[in-house]
Amino acid sequence: MMKGDKLFREVEDNCFDAGVRIKEMAETAVSVQVLSTIPVLFNYWAKPADGLETSRFLNDHLAVTVDKDPERFIGLGTVPLQDIDLAIKEMERCVQELKMPGLEIGSNINGDNLSDQKFFPFYKRAAELGCAIFVHPWEMMGEQQMQKYWLPWLVGMPGETSRAICSMIFGGVLEQFPKLRVAFAHGGGSFPLTIGRIQHGFDVRPDLVAIDNPVNPRDYIGKFWIDSLVHDAGALKFIMDVMGEDSICLGSDYPFPLGEHHPGKLIENMDIGSSVKDKLLFENAQRWLGRDVILKK
Fold first, then answer.
1. Global pTM?
2. Structural domains for the chain
């Protein structure tokens, strides 16, 4: 995979070969997989027309993959958010023509926070279409200052995800579009652990924090989803306590090294009861996707 004219990473055939994926799903007892584009392929940096062309190509490939194995795969599209009109047009095609339940977007768009007013028509149309949104961190803030030790992925991604959550809360996105179903990757990043600090900042400096939305950030807990990918039983218990057992979906980050190599194993090994496990393994994801399809353990 190339990022511009530079090598980004080498990928194996489980990134694009459905047959390989189904084999590996069988090996790890995964019944249904939600497919999405690797964030580097968002191509938000490209000219809008070129971004639309690559988005359509990627979405068509996802749709064909899902159509061949609809009981095994669900697809999330990608759209050229560097141009809102084109993004809305492609979102409509994904939902109405390709029958996708949602889209994946980045945690920022060419450095612009998700609270930027220019994105509001996109959110409005997504809510109208019932289009679920999955926010994945990318282009991490401070990335160029911490290249060593894989720090952009270990440190930057959690902060980048919290940046996206706080932007959508403080910018009034979740307030103005209450029907918008949004999920955030990697356990919500640093947001659950720092919600106390976030609320305290809201309380003591409303002149800086509450300038676009006067609602307490804690009031939005339970109104969006995060995934379960935290790699630690104590951390998973913590985010369940903070975010609620109804707001966490199974996340795998398959097939990359930072993913859970046996998706759901952490949940399955915890002493939390079968009904809670079912919520985390598939029921919450089904509510977020808004689909009639039965997601199985």
1. 0.94
2. 2-289 (3.20.20.140)
